[in-house]
Amino acid sequence: MDKLRITGGQRLNGDVIVSGAKNAALPILCASLLSADTIQLDNVPRLRDIDTTLKLLAMLGVRQVRDGASVELQAEHIDSSEAPYELVKTMRASILVLGPLLARFGHARVSLPGGCAIGQRPVDQHIKGLAAMGADIRVEHGFVIAEAKRLQGATIRTDMITVTGTENLMMAATLAEGQTILENAAREPEIIDLAELLIKMGARIQGHGTDRIVIDGVERLHGAQHTICPDRIETGTFLCAVAATGGDITLHNTNADALGATLDKLREAGLQLELGPNTIRGHMNTRPKAVSFRTTEYPGFPTDMQAQLMALNAIADGTASIVETIFENRYMHVQELNRLGADIEIDGNVAVVKGMPELSGATVMATDLRASASLVIAGLAARGETTIERIYHLDRGYDRMESKLQAIGAHIERLSKEQA
Ligand code: EPU
């Protein structure tokens, strides 16, 4: 397994091109199942979860051509409507094929994702929503098995706000008969990006970006081209990194509008920001100040930035209190940050971070995607050498992170299995 070796203490200076958003690209790739025509996608990030999704779509019979950040997909016919356990267990977002398969082909068999490191993460709301649309849907032998002649529009209010749940139901509703209203819908920018692609394909959707999405079903969807929106979490991760190390970086191909709550917190920590139409410049010349925050659904502070801002707090001046409200077990990075000399205590879903003047390099283990990013940030700021093991977690969701960091002056290298 690859490892990352970081020699901390270098300031970051220079330019970073932000990749397309993982969490927009994943549902958008699955949306190709909704049409027999070609879907042309650009700005698709190069990372493991995208490879896994393309593998799953290929198994289902979706033809594909990939050239760098461009992907062409065509689902004229499918060979199978089954998403097997071997793939779903490695990536929960595989559940996103359920709605499209059922809506277009009338049947789907998708392995139930197991629990995952950051929490239980059930898919009951996806199932409940599709059942409300008339699907015959049951869980049997570890699979969600769904059938429907044609889905029927319905008013669906999910018990909690769910991002992929909203996406699955929105995709299914595009081909349903009649009108579907999704209440308590997620408002994330990635939902808007998916809706924009679906509209280009001929879907009739209104209200995306609000908590009430109205979809009027159509008979068929056609081909379209779409450029994936910028990754707001990658953007936020690099901004946390420069806030932790000091320096001056400019992020390109990004969108500050999608990062309101994150930018507010980084400003509070002392990062100076200059926002352009597609750029964000962040510069930092002081020790960060501790910032308390609470994760909530968009437009609140994202849970996907919690670990990275915690790493910043670990070296900040003062004490911060963090409340994680989305996932019940998303503090696995705490133990590892403490190995680097941080002083973090957890009580239920509250973490209290006492800022230390400095961290010291050590060997640590990545436990999930954003936890890995927090360890990279801490390693960049720490004195001495940090080795991060199990970085396959990082590769799932970041597009060539270490090369982007090297280009702005970080001393970071990948040790492949043979070297490690
Ligand atoms: N939930 C249920 N039942 C459901 C669906 C969700 O109980 O049927 C609960 C979850 O267990 C969780 C909460 O509702 O406690 C919110 O979960 P949500 O469904 O919104 O999460 P998700 O759709 O599985 C997406 C992102 C995550 C991100 C969350 C929250 C994708 C592919 N994944 O997950 O991204 O943390 O929304 O914003 O979009 C990441 O990129 O590192 C990542 C984990």
UniProtKB/TrEMBL annotation:
<feature type="domain" description="Enolpyruvate transferase">
    <location>
        <begin position="7"/>
        <end position="405"/>
    </location>
</feature>
<dbReference type="InterPro" id="IPR050068">
    <property type="entry name" value="MurA_subfamily"/>
</dbReference>
<keyword id="KW-0573">Peptidoglycan synthesis</keyword>
<dbReference type="InterPro" id="IPR013792">
    <property type="entry name" value="RNA3'P_cycl/enolpyr_Trfase_a/b"/>
</dbReference>
<dbReference type="GO" id="GO:0008760">
    <property type="term" value="F:UDP-N-acetylglucosamine 1-carboxyvinyltransferase activity"/>
</dbReference>
<dbReference type="InterPro" id="IPR036968">
    <property type="entry name" value="Enolpyruvate_Tfrase_sf"/>
</dbReference>
<dbReference type="InterPro" id="IPR005750">
    <property type="entry name" value="UDP_GlcNAc_COvinyl_MurA"/>
</dbReference>
<feature type="active site" description="Proton donor">
    <location>
        <position position="116"/>
    </location>
</feature>
<protein>
    <recommendedName>
        <fullName>UDP-N-acetylglucosamine 1-carboxyvinyltransferase</fullName>
        <ecNumber>2.5.1.7</ecNumber>
    </recommendedName>
</protein>
<feature type="binding site">
    <location>
        <begin position="121"/>
        <end position="125"/>
    </location>
    <ligand>
        <name>UDP-N-acetyl-alpha-D-glucosamine</name>
    </ligand>
</feature>
<keyword id="KW-0808">Transferase</keyword>
<dbReference type="InterPro" id="IPR001986">
    <property type="entry name" value="Enolpyruvate_Tfrase_dom"/>
</dbReference>
<comment type="function">
    <text>Cell wall formation. Adds enolpyruvyl to UDP-N-acetylglucosamine.</text>
</comment>
<feature type="binding site">
    <location>
        <begin position="22"/>
        <end position="23"/>
    </location>
    <ligand>
        <name>phosphoenolpyruvate</name>
    </ligand>
</feature>
<feature type="binding site">
    <location>
        <position position="326"/>
    </location>
    <ligand>
        <name>UDP-N-acetyl-alpha-D-glucosamine</name>
    </ligand>
</feature>
<keyword id="KW-0132">Cell division</keyword>
<keyword id="KW-0131">Cell cycle</keyword>
<feature type="binding site">
    <location>
        <position position="92"/>
    </location>
    <ligand>
        <name>UDP-N-acetyl-alpha-D-glucosamine</name>
    </ligand>
</feature>
<keyword id="KW-0133">Cell shape</keyword>
<dbReference type="Pfam" id="PF00275">
    <property type="entry name" value="EPSP_synthase"/>
</dbReference>
<comment type="pathway">
    <text>Cell wall biogenesis; peptidoglycan biosynthesis.</text>
</comment>
<feature type="binding site">
    <location>
        <position position="304"/>
    </location>
    <ligand>
        <name>UDP-N-acetyl-alpha-D-glucosamine</name>
    </ligand>
</feature>
<keyword id="KW-0670">Pyruvate</keyword>
<keyword id="KW-0961">Cell wall biogenesis/degradation</keyword>
<keyword id="KW-0963">Cytoplasm</keyword>
<feature type="modified residue" description="2-(S-cysteinyl)pyruvic acid O-phosphothioketal">
    <location>
        <position position="116"/>
    </location>
</feature>
<comment type="similarity">
    <text>Belongs to the EPSP synthase family. MurA subfamily.</text>
</comment>
